[in-house]
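Why should sequence recovery work at all? Because a backbone constrains its sequence more than one might expect. Tight turns favour small or flexible residues, buried strands favour hydrophobic ones, and helices have their own preferences. The token representation captures these environments compactly. In the example below, the structure is given first.
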């Protein structure tokens, strides 16, 4: 018997979008994602929400409905230039503010200015964050081993339209469960350069969804974290005919070429 992991719903591929800084262009970006049923995570700076060039606190719940609201710190400081007590305040207050606006526990974040140190990691874990996105690009389609240092595939200006074909046919993509993780800032699209424009991101959404249709799981960052954590926590019998899923959500396996849903509890695979 051959077993391999699948994504939610038995899908073999996953796409997620991750956008920072809560500029007003997020409204247009969310509308675009909604048109194509693509899911995104939006990392907000809660103190900035009172600025004129920004989404307002009153808009947060409706603008980002159906997507994920995530933290990006209270004021976007350089994390290696402030005391750890200040860092804790920056993150806990941001989490508190955003939770009051969106109505659910906010568990993820992205690093402001991309700065990660040992102290930063310790503080974030103590504040209850379960994943944190870096400002680097892996240029691959692999899942992170450590979700607290989650590096996405690439920034949206890295020729993402040509990467659609790699995501379809590269050796890794064809033989594993690839994740295409794109990040950026929606305020960049009005720059209107070749690889950074509204036309480019719309073309990407159009081509991507036309290429893969419903064979891709379109997910937010936290949905991927929850799903992969459940998947990695599965316990199999020695002969792999039985599996225990201790999580609260279903996990899907490919068993000898067939998708199998493993609901919470024990599942007999033969
Ligand atoms: Zn930022």
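From this structural description, the recovered sequence reads:
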């Amino acid at each position: 018997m051959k077993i391999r992991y699948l994504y939610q719903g038995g899908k073999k591929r996953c796409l997620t979008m991750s956008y920072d800084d809560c500029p007003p262009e997020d409204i247009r970006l969310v509308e675009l994602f909604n048109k194509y049923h693509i899911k995104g995570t939006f990392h907000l700076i809660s103190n900035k929400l009172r600025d004129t060039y920004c989404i307002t606190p009153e808009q947060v719940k409706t603008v980002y409905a159906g997507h994920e609201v995530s933290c990006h710190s209270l004021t976007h400081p350089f994390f290696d230039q402030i005391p750890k007590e200040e860092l804790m305040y920056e993150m806990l207050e941001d989490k508190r503010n955003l939770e009051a606006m969106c109505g659910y526990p906010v568990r993820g974040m992205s690093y402001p200015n991309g700065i990660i140190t040992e102290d930063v990691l310790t503080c974030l874990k103590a504040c209850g964050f379960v994943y944190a996105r870096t400002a680097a690009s892996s240029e691959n389609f692999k899942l992170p081993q450590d979700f607290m240092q989650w590096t996405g595939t690439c920034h949206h200006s890295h020729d993402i339209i040509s990467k659609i074909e790699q995501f379809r046919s590269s050796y890794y993509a064809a033989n594993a469960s690839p994740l295409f993780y794109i990040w950026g800032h929606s305020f960049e699209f009005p720059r209107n350069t070749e690889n950074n424009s509204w036309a480019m991101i719309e073309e990407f959404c159009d081509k991507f969804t036309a290429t893969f249709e419903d064979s891709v799981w379109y997910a937010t960052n936290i949905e991927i974290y929850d799903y992969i954590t459940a998947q990695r926590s599965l316990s199999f019998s020695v002969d792999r005919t039985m599996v225990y899923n201790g999580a609260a959500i279903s996990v899907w396996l490919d068993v000898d070429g067939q998708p199998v849903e493993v609901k919470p509890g024990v599942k007999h695979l033969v």
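A few observations help interpret the result. Helices lie at 25-35, 57-63, 84-102, 118-126, 160-169, 171-175, 198-212, 221-232.
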